[in-house]
Amino acid sequence: MSFRNSVYAATAMSLVTAGGAFAEIITIATVNNGDMIRMQGLTDDFTAKTGHEVEWVTLEENVLRQRVTTDISTKGGAFDIMTIGMYETPIWGANGWLVPLDDLSAEYDVDDLLPAMRSGLSHEGTLYAAPFYGESSMIMYRTDLMEKAGLEMPKAPTWQFIREAAAAMTDRDNDINGICLRGKAGWGEGGAFITVTGNSFGARWFDEDWNAQFDQPEWAEALNFYVDMMNESGPAGFATNGFNENLSLFQQGKCGMWIDATVAASFVTDPEDSTVADKVGFALAPNSEGVEKRANWLWAWALAIPAGTQKEDAAMQFIEWATSKDYIELVAEKEGWANVPPGARSSLYENPEYQKVPFAQMTLDSIKAADPQNPTVEPVPYVGIQFVAIPEFAGIATEVSQEFSAAYAGQQTVEEALAKAQALTNDAMEAAGYR
Amino acid sequence: MARAVTQQRKIINTAAAWAVGLLIFFPILWTILTSFKTEAQAIADPPIFLGFDWTLENYSAVMERSNYGRFLWNSVIIAGGSTILGIIIAIPAAWSMAFVPSKRTKDILLWMLSTKMLPAVGVLYPIYLLFIQLGILDTKVGLVIVLMLINLPIIVWMLYTYFKEIPGEILEAARMDGASLKDEVLYVLTPMAIPGIASTLLLNVILAWNEAFWTLNLTAAKAAPLTAFIASYSSPEGLFYAKLSAASTMAIAPILILGWFSQKQLVSGLTFGAVK
Fold first, then answer.
1. Where do the coiled-coil regions begin and end (chain B) (predicted)?
2. What is the ipTM of this complex?
3. What digits encode the pLDDT tens for the residues A229-257?
4. I want to staple A323 with a disulfide (CB 3.0 to 4.6 A). Which of A130, B42, B102, B205 is the partner?
5. Which run of H or E residues covers position A54?
6. Could you tell me which residues are beta bridge partners of residue A370?
7. What sign does the CA torsion over A427, A428, A429, A432 have?
8. Interface test with A, best of B233, B235, B244 (most A CBs within 10 A)
């Protein structure tokens, strides 16, 4: 090789390495929801600040879960950042699959993260995913129908009140159902809802020795209560309704009350899509009289870095950018305060501008009322409120929720469903070596 | 002799055929209609059939958010590439099975088909690990190979059925005229089997275009085809049915148009050999 060629080659090499050090292209897998799509639209701000570019892989939640699980368990390296939830984070963190986020910058202010979120996304005190947005669940109700029924919604109602109010608001002739709740099979759909309902009646999935508890009276009480109330005041075919079906019913004015994710508040109060936008009130998720736990869950969509990625520095920079206080300001400036990602940072709820958003305070109160470390009245060996953070749970809970949905649809009795749930859960836990 | 068909019977038959056709096409029609509605109209109960304000806002939202061109290009390469590669491999295979069958030909054919009986997810991990080792994860080359392998049994079976219809004497005559094996397959057999090859090609392009397990699981940002484009608009927490419908319409439009223009080929190919 001639001298001149060597110089060219050396220059080219140094340019390539310099380019590599300063500007990377990172691939991020994420879910399709409003907050995430908004973030994709604002990526230019990140590129302008750091020089790194971003490629997005947006997938439906269940497809995403399968996709990223395959990749991380085989160390495939297809993604530099994965959007995961509170269920996966502690399990994957314990497996050593994620880069610990223990080296975040001072201006990031990690102590500003809401304590419930931080603890739900940690394993043994180490944070493994940064919350992009967090949610709990709460009651959304029609203020006009409540008034018509001559009732007033307390800030923290009981299930007994909810049942009575639902019956009073139901108007079958005008196609108004007093209450709409999830009944659809699937651990993240109806399974999540009935698990928190169980918590609020004093029930739990397992005792401290991992024995299933579906044969206990608390579960029978919770499930019978749910079925009776839904038969009295719920919509036809509630056994197959999930989040989207209930959202659709509520937006069209066909539900008096709906207990579901706090993120729904921004949909039902949006005048463009909702016919009842100006008639919605909020209250804490209920509990059964005398039970200290309420039926509200806790969830976060969070950003995590798979261990072994070649672009860890750029990925870390992105996570700091996307879950920072500055990002919240950026969204507020471009799209208004009602559209900022909620539920992740304490400082957001101290902001006077954000306090004007109608559902802000109730969202915060709901998140604060949820405690993933102590989700139930009786002690349990697991973490998680609407789920049990063990790898086997998704499979078991999907089967259990199928049995429950069959009971909602009247294909079997509540007692039959509980007996089957008890047997299949114990079998699966035995096979997995817990018992 | 053809049966005499009365006028009345003709009308009934035509009406029945249209009814069945519309019934089958209705879900696609509904998707296309929904893509022109607002999100609120998309979930209206009772559903609105035609009396809504037609809007293109979903299409502009989808175009703004996604790089449709890239997904489309990936789909074209993956579906086209895997089909052509499959045909090139399958023609000699089908030729040998049709014209020089051995004792085990039937068993081989059945064995090939049996690979289709395994649920795809059963081999997801082995294939994924192979892809990592070979460095072809999230590449079009990787997907062309996998989809070719998946559709190969169908291609061989279809071509075998068509080739069986061609009289062996013609090939024999070619051989007597001094045609080599290559000439025989390339200049005698292939031209005669064009309708069969064309319909095999079309059917496999459609199958590869719609394949949504491997194309989702073996891609990330670079090689993702239109199936991933649709999946990015589906959401269990949020009612975005109109946008999802717009994305679906954009994903199926090219294949629908291709199918429309080649329907004569498809039908004649699929019924080829049905009557002897």
1. none
2. 0.85
3. 999 999 999 999 999 999 999 999 999 99
4. A130
5. strand A53-59
6. none
7. positive
8. B235
